[in-house]
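WARN  no MSA supplied for this record, continuing single-sequence
INFO  ligand: oxa(dethia)-CoA
INFO  echoing inputs
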Amino acid sequence: MKTIITGSGIGIPRNAVPNAMLTTLMDTSDEWIRTRSGIEQRYYADPGQGSAELGAIAAQNALAAAEREPADIDAVIFATMTPNYFFPGNGPLLQAQIGLREIPTFDIRQQCSGFLYGLDLADSLIQCGKHQRILLVGAEVHTPFMPWERGWGITIGEEHGPISEEDYAFNTSIRDRTVLFGDGAGAVVVEASKNGDRGFLGAKLFTDGSNAEALYVPGVGFRHRPYVTAEQLEKALPIPQMDGRTVFKEALSRMPAAVRAVCAAAGVAVDEIDVLLVHQANLRIVEGVAKQLGMSADRVPHNIERYGNTTAGTLPILYHECVADGRIRPGMLICFTALGSGLHWGAALYRA
Ligand code: UT7
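INFO  complex generated
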């Protein structure tokens, strides 16, 4: 028995925000963002639209693609680092929003590796016979990390600059992170199948907590008493902090190693991979991973130019687009790989 993906869908907010729009908010440039990251635009959710809502859109599209009804689903795995609430997680919100039965919902939070971890968990739950049809969602709304007061109206074209010098200076102080992230969701329906060779061939997942602070949110957490204070807000501690160079270096060494490890365990050569789906944090990382594995650019698709980094949303969005435009076709060997905060990373192999 194999675990197969029977349908995928995405949920993308309506506000496309090109790099040029951000230059009115902070000292940055289209050129810097493009050359350092590959990003040309990203999408921002409407106010009030959370990752649960975007995830629900993606989930409904995935159900339609899989020709399944909400009643057919017997478990949910929801991967996000930007849930609507601290608790409960997005799983129960999704369950209610799209009318699923009173099934178990798991909330997981492995950040950029969330979808990858979710795939392995879904495969395990199916292989052990506990569940037959799982809805796996990766969704993020990063924009609340960006503390722009007047900026919102400007990014979605409803207001025009300039902003105050003080806001401009503050936004510039966090520009290395804010320009990279966008909002978006992807979902897949994962099912047990007894037919043929399609399906998951395995995953290799890893964690290195000694680098937890290389990318993390230092403020607003339950080690603080109370867990949110005016001082934390004043010091901008709820905004993620990132040692970009460390994460960059780790990504470039860990992802190729994970791809090699999962191929070795499955008894296939790296050369046999038809399509390598790499987490989209930086185009230079995607290209570097491809180069290290000796894979030509046409086998390593990217969409970071349109979405920026959508964390747990990235891999399912990329997978969905590649299936939709025929870059992923039945019989192809697909490899997923990601690295992100945790640090968590890994790779999974799938025969489409
Ligand atoms: O998804 C989770 C995993 N995350 C990642 O994988 C991210 C990994 N890291 C990266 O992708 C890169 O490290 C960044 C894109 C974050 C940064 O690129 P970099 O080439 O490492 O740049 P840098 O941090 O070394 O900064 C170079 C310069 C600095 O100026 P000085 O000190 O050389 O004068 C920065 O202040 O670029 C400046 N800078 C900016 N300039 C314009 C930083 N952010 C910006 C900006 N616009 N947005």
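The chain has two domains: 2-193, 199-351.
INFO  checksum written, moving to next record
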